[in-house]
Amino acid sequence: MISFLRGTLRKKLRNEIVLDVNGVGYSVFVSKRVLENIPEINEEYLLITYLDVKENALNLYGFFDEKEKEIFKLLISVSGISAKTANTILYYATFEEIIGLINNRTSFTAVKIPGIGPKKIDMISLALKDKIFKI
Fold first, then answer.
1. Beta bridge partners of 47
2. 78: which residues sit within 8 A by CB, 6+ positions away?
3. Residue 19: beta bridge partners?
4. pLDDT in tens, 64-94
5. Contact between residue 83 and residue 52 where contact means Cβ atoms under 8 Å apart
């Protein structure tokens, strides 16, 4: 498991960055909060990561803090929610908004997440309602 990366930021895209760690460029899918707080190109950066291992791919996901990583891990534990979908949710919703959606304190209309409808939000909410208090 790759828990974190410390390296030089080489590229910043819409939801992905490239970190140069001792001459190796790691492409990492990141949340919106990471992009909002990331330094300039060619500056050093420490990024908390999660390595998603699939049969035909290894994808790294990066997070602003441990809370964001934990909610990501909870989201991917829900049947039907892939790491890519969980990353999309984190790109469009903050940690607090996701907790609110799970606890039904935030209305779905307050948070717009492409590809995630009310039925999927209800499914996530039901699956994580009891687990959310671990965070």
1. 5
2. 123, 124, 127, 128
3. 9, 26
4. 999 999 999 999 999 989 999 999 998 888 8
5. yes
Query: C-alpha distances in angstroms, 127 versus 77, 103, 132?
Result: 9, 11, 9
Identify the residue whose tokens are 């490239």.
18
CA atoms within 13 A on the CB side of 73: 16
Which string of DSSP letters, residue by residue, matches 54-94?
A: ETTEEEEEEESSHHHHHHHHHHHTSTT--HHHHHHHHHHS-
For the whole model, what pTM was predicted?
0.87
- Between CA 105 and CA 116, with CA 111 as vertex, the angle to 5 degrees is 105
Which long-range contacts does 113-118 make (Cβ < 8 Å, 24+ apart)? 113/88, 113/89, 114/88, 115/85, 115/88, 116/85, 116/88, 116/89
Are β-strands 57-63 and 24-30 bridged in parallel, bridged antiparallel, or unpaired? parallel
Distance, CA of 18 to CA of 47 (rounded, Å): 11
**β-pair partners for 44:** 8
Which pair of tokens denotes residue 70?
A: 């934990």
